[in-house]
Amino acid sequence: MHPAFSVVFFTTATGAGYGLLALLGVLGGLGFISPDFWLGLVGMGLALGLIAAGLLSSTTHLGRPERAWRAFSQWRSSWLSREGVSSVATFIPAGLFGIGWVFFGRTSGWVAIAGALAAIGAVTTVCTTGMIYASLKPIAQWHSRYTLPGYLIFSAMTGSVLLNALLQAFVIGATAITAAALLLTLLGWGWKLATWRYNDALEIATTANTATGLAGGTVRSVEWPHTEENYLLKEMGFRIARKHAAKLRLITQLLAFALPALLLAVLFALPWPFTAILSVVAAIAQFAGMLVERWLFFAEAKHTVTLYYGR
Amino acid sequence: MTCLPAHTDKKLGLVIDLDTCVGCQACVTACKEWNTGGHMAPLTDIDPYGGDVDGVWFNRVHSYEHTTEAGGRTVNFPRSCLHCETPACVTVCPTGASYKRASDGIVLIDESKCIGCKLCSWACPYGAREFDTDVGVMKKCTLCVDRIYNDNLAEEDRVPACVAACPTSARHFGDLGDPASAVSQLVASRGGVDLMPEMGYKPTNKYLPPRAHTERAASVPAPRLEPVKAEGGFLGWVDRMLSN
């Protein structure tokens, strides 16, 4: 599948943004993170900024972005529509929580409820994003039990690493948050390795035989219907990154998992401001690594239409 | 609404005979010619005379070499929308632009509602949908909905353009939901198959596999030439000399 940068950035940014929003909503709303104007402003600004930037980025993928409002209508059947509805609906409790927690410094009552609802909205939206991909049968690497949990784990992972960087920067770093970020990073690493292992061993039932209805023997494409690449091959037959898959997987592992895990681990032995600097570096490295991961998620996915072209 | 109809009154579709298709591309050009002025017009071509040709087509004919123990053969394979009974391309559509008609089962796009998110093309395992980069919307086969009900055409022309154009009658159009229809009978008698049945999309269009290999051609050679009658003169003398 063609990795359109708008979609790669969209899923990575909203994943991190919703992860951070959910954590702030729950931990801030319940008072585990004491209200602080600048911390709150930067934290909520970062979370909602990542979400808004991601959503805006996704509309550049559209052929007719001016009609994007129509995408809120088919939530009964379409995961993409559900994602649209859920993402916009989440802004309401998120906004209320932000006002109460950041500007009024409240941590209970309606602020806690708004925070919890924002967290529920965030998790729901990430689920709908994951289901868009997990529901697509023609792409075996996506239509797997690894896809939805992957989106949730990576959202929690990038969100917690961002939260850790935020708290460390404001000199209120909590050991529990750092430990959670470290554990989620290791969990994400394990999940990605398991996903790759599963995908590499995939035996896909759909073959050139079932695609053409020609039973038995071999079916070899001898002539395409067209001389140049068409939409189908440009969109679904993307092959460039497959050549570099091994290197890109290594880069993903180093940037998204290994380096952040190492930096988070050494935080326990370091004083401020080193903890703050390393935490921010860990968050930036992980975000860059997740962009590579998401690029590979698309580039390594093989659509059944490529079978018609002998690919 | 992108929810699928629970029942369609008819299941209009095509039956494509892989035994008789000669890969002449007549259906491809007839489709392009009709539809670039039809329901989903235009079927945009980008740089049509340049080195980087691209464009929207509803029907594409591939050629395959099918090799089995019985031998090998070339199979020409027209590929277009199968108007599935459970098309995920419709249910994934976030705007309601894609829909399946309850009356005849045809899968269509309302261009005015399409936002060009391309998700339907990802959801189609058969590559039936092509994005028009110029107009910014998705396009697909309409089963020539603007021909088959068109009172302005003679009755025999109220079939999809690809069917009308096929010189070997490899394409048939009809109601596959009616077991008594000619197309249903043809599918039953020739063992018509679904493409990618394991996907569970339940395609309406059926493909008739090539007939089995036979030895008929090799066992019925042309008759030998009969010996000529003996003649007199010079040729008769040559004949007698060579016959000894």
From TrEMBL, chain A:
GO CC field: dimethyl sulfoxide reductase complex; plasma membrane
Biological process per Gene Ontology, one example term: anaerobic electron transport chain
Entry superkingdom: Bacteria
Gene Ontology molecular function: any one: dimethyl sulfoxide reductase activity
Record has Membrane as a keyword: yes
Residues that span the membrane, as ranges: 7-32, 38-63, 84-104, 110-134, 146-163, 169-189, 248-270, 276-297
Annotated InterPro entries: DmsC (IPR007059)
UniProt entry keywords in alphabetical sequence: Membrane, Transmembrane, Transmembrane helix
Name the UniProt record assigns to this protein: Dimethyl sulfoxide reductase anchor subunit
From TrEMBL, chain B:
Organism from which the protein derives: Mesorhizobium neociceri
Transmembrane domains' residue ranges: none
Domain called 4Fe-4S ferredoxin-type: residue spans: 12-31, 71-103, 105-134
Family matches, as Pfam families: Fer4_11 (PF13247), Fer4_2 (PF12797)
Keywords: 4Fe-4S, Iron, Iron-sulfur, Metal-binding
An MF annotation (GO) of this entry: metal ion binding
Keyword Coiled coil among record annotations: no
Keyword RNA-binding tagged: no
Top-level division of the source organism's lineage: Bacteria
Protein name in the entry: 4Fe-4S dicluster domain-containing protein
